[in-house]
Structure formats: C-alpha cells, structure tokens
Amino acid sequence: MMPFSGQVMTFPSTCGACATQCECRMFVTNIPYFQEVIVMASSCDACGYRNSEVKPGGRIPLKGKKIKVHVKNIKDLNRDVIKSDTASIKIPEIDLELVSGTLGGLVTTVEGLISKISESLERVHGFTFGDSLDDTRRRKWKEFRTRLDKLKSLDEPWTLIIDDALANSFVSPVADDIKDDNQLTLEEYERSWEQNEELGLNDMDTSSADAAYGSADVESSNDG
Ligand SMILES: [Zn+2]
C-alpha cells in the first residue's frame, strides 16, 4: 500500500495494549516529494492492537507545512497519510479541530484517519459518559459521529487539513506528478516564535541544518 522502499528491521517489542510480546518493524523510507522518515510499526497477534510511529529521519526542517486535500471520491479516501505527532488536523466542514499530539503519529489512509479519529473520540466520550445519564452529551456525540461517518460515505466533498510545524506529515498525490494533483495543496510557512518555543527549537543550535532547506530562518544560539 505505502510507497515504501528500503530495508525493514524487526525487533521484539511489547504490545501497548495487552503487553504481550510482539514484533516491531522499523524501516527508513524516502517517499517521493517527502523527506526521509523512520516508520516503526507493530501489530499484536493476541489482541489486534496496531500502532505506528513516524519519526523524522533527517534534519529539522526550517519551515512548517500545511497540507490541504479536497476529498471528493474514493481515490481521495485511499490516499496514503503519514501524520506525525506534531501535526494538527482540521476538517472545517464539521468544525473538527484536533491539536498536535492528538492521536500521536499514524501511518494510514484518509479513510483510516477518519476511523481513527472516530475510535479515539469514542474512547474519550465513552469514558466521560461512564454510567451517568448525560443524554444531551451522549446525543451530541452520536450526532457528531454520524457526521464523521458521512465523511467516509462521501455524501458531500470535504477538506482535510494537516498542519505540521515540523513538516513531517505527508499525503500521497493521486497523479503521477504532484503538480497535476489539483485537489492537493502544500503550503510552507514560517513557524512563529511560539511554535518554535513549544517544539523546544529556540534553544537548539540549528546552524548545522542542511542548506537545502533554505536560508536559516531559525535563529541559532551558539553563544552558550
Ligand atoms: Zn496486544
């Protein structure tokens, strides 16, 4: 499914859900139009729990990246998605906004991402409701879940926005050339001082960053 190449390493791990011994696969990949990333994926034979993490393999990019996908058809739902844990997710049509850190890092598809959001919110809301009879909140959550499901049935076109301050997220183009994919837009932006502060970059010496990433927009602090 994923356009991955490169050697896969496996090492023993424990399941994050049931603590059974399982295998973690790790591979470094170079995705077209994307930087090198390290993907660590594990799935548990005992309980079916799956987990994937994405780590940047290269230098810290000097700019953040906003990916916007107009989802209209099944091809869009099948696009590969890498969402790093520094990415936030927005779906304006249903007023959904998940801050960075929510869901962690994921390797999935557009459709899989919606399922993951639904599952994750279900867990949170199921927990919150407990045995209480908070009917209003329960009804609101069910309404929202219906709207989430409708995204997958493509009743109406919608927009997925993945905003990653460290530019470690990716959505695959459906065209051979990314320039021909007019439903996918990428926008690079300067991180704010606050974003750098949140990422701990203001105190980091980034002067060794590859010049290929552009001029040094991040102040380096060599005076320490
Ligand atoms: Zn397990």
Automatic annotation (TrEMBL):
- Taxonomy, superkingdom: Eukaryota
Start and end of every Zinc finger ZPR1-type domain? 13-173
Region described as Disordered: 195-224
What GO molecular function annotation could you give as one example from this UniProt entry?
zinc ion binding
Gene3D superfamilies per UniProt: ZPR1, A/B domain (2.60.120.1040), ZPR1, zinc finger domain (2.20.25.420)
User: Cellular component per GO?
Assistant: nucleus
What are the protein's UniProt keywords? Metal-binding, Zinc, Zinc-finger
Keyword Hydrolase in annotation:
no
Asked if the keyword Zinc belongs to this entry, the reply reads: yes
Membership in a protein family: Belongs to the ZPR1 family.
Record protein name field = Zinc finger ZPR1
